[in-house]
């Protein structure tokens, strides 16, 4: 079964010099490698071509979600492997992920274990949803809902698969409409996997699949940090409006406005300006998102609240 590895890149030639050879040394075959490029101005094209990989460039930065979707559309494989460029992989990485995915036809995506670059600690593990930060590695998805990460030694259902190392079935990915392209950078993986769970399609961790991630390596510039800030803000607004119960929608929008007020009071003009831009951008999506929400949950025959309860109890379920 052909796996198409899709690597999104922007001015990451130094990362590709490590990432692509690591993919080329994988034990799994057949494997095609596609690099989707968001208007790089460095030597990325030369690195990709020297490795014999496919080069899919765009004249402007179309964002992460759009780039991943373009790579999926160009892919020939039945399985899609979405990857960051600032990573390297254990030789059995792809093989381990495919093995877990093929165990159950209801598995939509497979996640992997990420270590930091020197391998001294795990930076991405099994994810689950909680109403409070119950683990050392926890972050808010929306106010009062947290993604918690914990160690796991065997395959188990998880909240989401990281877009930095996500293996999916192409047919399911297409049925879901791919990543939501209104999410320029941030939350695109959680949003996609949530919609898959609504359909009864699982995300599962493959703890034997190991990779090393230079976390933030592709976004350590001022431009990258600002993009990440705006991406998280927009992602929370979209996730809450599209997928969460009404009470969480209200909390998220109020928290957003509260953050804007604090930035204005403390004269954090850049943050305030970014918040206003993101707010203006997402206000236009409110009506379409509400329609989509009704369609998503209407098709599943459940409410957003019922789905939330299911997601909160994933860690108690079996694969």
Please characterize this protein's 3D structure:
This protein is α/β, with parallel strands linked by helices and 319 residues long. It has 2 domains: 3-213, Spore Coat Polysaccharide Biosynthesis Protein SpsA, Chain A, CATH 3.90.550; 222-316, no CATH class. It contains 11 helices and 13 strands. The strands form 2 sheets. Strands 1, 2, 3, 4, 5, 6, 7, 11, 12 and 13 form a 10-stranded mixed sheet that branches. Strand 2 (31-38), helix 2 (44-50) and strand 3 (54-58) form a beta-alpha-beta unit. It starts with a strand and ends in a 7-residue tail after the last helix.
Topology summary:
Blueprint: E1 3-9, H1 13-24, E2 31-38, H2 44-50, E3 54-58, H3 64-74, E4 79-83, E5 87-89, H4 93-101, E6 107-116, E7 122-124, E8 126-130, E9 137-142, E10 145-150, E11 156-157, E12 165-169, H5 170-175, H6 188-198, E13 202-213, H7 222-243, H8 246-265, H9 269-283, H10 286-300, H11 304-312
Parallel strand pairs: 1-2, 1-4, 2-3, 6-13
Antiparallel strand pairs: 4-12, 5-13, 6-7, 6-12, 8-10, 9-10, 11-13
Helix pairs in contact: 1-2, 7-8, 7-9, 7-10, 8-9
């Amino acid at each position: 079964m052909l796996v198409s590895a899709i690597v999104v890149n922007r001015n990451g030639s130094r990362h590709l010099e490590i990432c692509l050879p690591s993919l080329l040394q994988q034990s799994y075959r057949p494997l095609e490698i596609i690099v989707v490029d968001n208007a790089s101005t460095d030597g990325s094209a030369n690195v990709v071509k020297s490795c014999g990989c496919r080069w899919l460039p765009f004249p402007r930065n179309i964002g992460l979600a759009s780039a991943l979707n373009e790579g999926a559309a160009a892919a020939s494989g039945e399985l899609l492997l979405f990857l960051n460029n600032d990573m390297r992989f254990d030789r059995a990485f792809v093989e381990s992920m495919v093995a877990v995915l093929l165990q159950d036809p209801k598995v939509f995506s497979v996640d992997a274990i990420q270590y930091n670059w020197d391998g001294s600690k795990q930076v991405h593990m099994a994810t689950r949803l909680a109403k409070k930060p119950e683990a050392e590695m926890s972050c808010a998805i929306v106010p009062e809902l947290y993604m918690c990460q914990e160690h796991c030694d065997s395959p188990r259902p998880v909240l989401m698969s990281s877009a930095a190392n996500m293996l999916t079935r192409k047919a399911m990915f297409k049925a879901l409409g791919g990543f939501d392209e209104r999410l320029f950078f941030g939350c695109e993986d959680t949003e996609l996997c949530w919609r898959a769970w609504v359909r009864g399609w699982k995300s599962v961790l493959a703890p034997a699949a190991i990779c090393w991630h230079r976390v933030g390596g592709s976004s350590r510039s001022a431009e990258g940090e600002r993009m990440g800030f705006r991406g998280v803000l927009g992602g929370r607004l979209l996730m809450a409006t599209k997928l969460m119960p009404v009470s969480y929608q209200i909390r998220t929008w109020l928290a957003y406005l509260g953050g804007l007020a604090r930035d204005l009071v403390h004269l954090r003009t850049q943050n305030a300006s970014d918040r206003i831009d993101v707010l203006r951008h997402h206000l236009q999506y409110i009506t379409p998102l509400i329609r989509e929400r009704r369609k998503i949950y209407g098709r599943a025959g459940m409410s957003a609240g019922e789905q939330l309860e299911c997601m909160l109890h994933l860690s108690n379920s079996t694969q």
